[in-house]
Amino acid sequence: MILARIVGTVVATRKDSRLVSSKLLVARPMDPHGKAEGSYLVAVDTVDAGVGETVLIVSGSSARMASGLKDCPVDAAIVGIVDHVEVAAGD
Question: Which residue range is the domain that position 76 belongs to?
Fold first, then answer.
């Protein structure tokens, strides 16, 4: 799973028919302390996330197992909205 913050949206008027009515969001991976790391990615939203929220993203074959995405051409899916991240002292 990838911890990330939603930073934007993607509008694609022409796309694979299996993605019609799917919301696409731009996410920036981050470490557990909230520091951005890695490259931006586009993910299909399955939990009605919004810009500024911290989310959990699955990728690869796990993304295609997310709700409503079976047999869809998806490499990343948002599967959770994070309420709080707690890191043990010293980490």
Answer: 2-81
In a domain, 32, yes or no: yes
- H/E/C letters for each residue in 38-64? CCCEEEEECCCCCCCCEEEEEECHHHH
pTM over 0.85: yes
In tens, the pLDDT along 43-74 reads 999 999 999 999 999 998 888 888 777 888 99
Using alpha carbons only, give the angle 81, 83, 84 rounded to the nearest 5 degrees: 130
3-state secondary structure 25-42: EEEEEECCCCCECCCCEE
Q: d(Cα 34, Cα 76) in Å, to the nearest integer?
A: 20
**32 pLDDT above the threshold of 90:** yes
Q: Which amino acid, one-letter code, is at 1? A: M
Q: What is the number of domains present in the chain?
A: 1
